[in-house]
Structures are given as structure tokens and as C-alpha cells.
Amino acid sequence: MMSTLAEYRQVGIVNTLRRCQLFAGISSADLNNIATITVVKSLSRDDYLFRQTDVPHGFFVVQSGAINLHRVNSTGREQVIHVFRPGESLGESIVATETGYPADARAVEKSQVLQIQKVGFGALLKRHPDLALKILGAMAIQLRMVISQLDDLTLKNVDTRFASWLIGQCPNPTSKNPVTIQLSTTKRLLAAELGTVSETFSRTVAKFRQQRLISAVGRTFTIFNPSQLNAVLHAELTD
Length: 239
Known about the structure:
With 239 residues, this protein is an alpha+beta fold. It has helices spanning 2-19, 28-36, 118-127, 129-155, 158-168, 187-193, 198-210, 226-238; strands at residues 38-43, 48-50, 58-64, 67-72, 78-84, 89-90, 104-107, 111-117, 179-182, 214-217, 220-223. The strands form three sheets. Strands 1-8-3-6 form a four-stranded antiparallel beta sheet. The longest helix has 27 residues, at 129-155. The radius of gyration is 20 Å and the shape is elongated. The protein starts with a helix and ends with a helix.
């Protein structure tokens, strides 16, 4: 029985790793090797996965739930960098540095993550340089994400950031057919991702509703005409 449970655990870890872009193209044998140096961690809502000051022992892949990566500014305000969801990896930079994590990470809902041990993974990288290149690629993607967010926060207002987010959820931004978006998280968290507070976000949603650009019921947004909203967004950006 114990052997069977261990096998199920191994299969579950390997399947999660396989869905992670970081490990795309990695052989089953290597995924099994990574699984042997992986620890499963469960977190309740608001539990911290790590803090910036922690000694890093590994990086993570989200198996279920959602992890909020954020920093706190000098005024005590929390700025969300990204919310990581199942299949996404975070904290990879600790593989290539002796410093700590770049920010704090906290579960925003009940979550389960895989912690891939730094020491064991470092040994694996020496045997597979191509995997090291994938790690560098993942770090580059996260850097671009931070730069893009900085541009959004400094060059766009909340209305524009929300419109941009809505358009980003549309399969075809030029379509005139309605698109329904079901939030997988809370509006409060989405507001934080957009770099604002709940009250300001609520006013922006109300404004878009009054302009007949969207409807909003609970966690469901409906864009009546993505093409129209896209035109409004471009007008804001070129204004």
C-alpha cells in the first residue's frame, strides 16, 4: 500500500512538472529525476510560501491554487508583481544566485506547490546544460513581466490598465461578438494585480458599465463588443 501511495505521488509530481513551461521537452526520465528531489507543500489561504529574507532552499511550481508574488513599498502598500497559477513556476532565480528570493510570496487561496530542492537541482543542471538554458529563459520572461508591469503603472491609468487586461482575455480582440470572462480569483486581487485598490477598481468597473462596454455580475465580466473596447483602448494609448 505504501509503495502504491508513493507511486501515485510520483506520478502526480511528474504530471505537474510536465505541464510547466519550464520543463517543456524534458524527457520522462529527467522528470522522474526531478521528482525525486521535489517536496510537496500545502498552504492555507494567506500562508506565506516564502519571504524575501528567507534562505532559499528551492524554487516552486504551483500544483493547485494561486500564489501572489509581491513587494511592500516604503509606505507599507503591497504591490502585486504576479499571481502564479497551476503549471507556473516561480523563484527560479535562486538557482543561479546565493541571494534570497526577489520578493514575498503568499497563497491567495488554498494551494499546493512543488518545491524543487536547490542542491539537487544544481547537480542535475551540471549533467543537463540545456535545462540551465530553460531556467535562464524563465528568468528572462519574469524580468520582461516586471518591466511590462512597471510600464503599465507609470504610463497608463487604471481605466487603461483594466481595458488592456480585458482585451488580453479575448481570443480575438477584433471580434464584435460578446466575450464572457469568469474570474478565477477575487476582484480585490485583480485590483491589486492592476496596481490599484478595490474602491478605485469598483469605480472603473462602474464607469465601463455606464459606457455599455461591459457587464459585471459577481466574478463574471461580459465584454459586449471586444472590437469597440479595443478601439477605446488604442484611443487612450495614443491620446
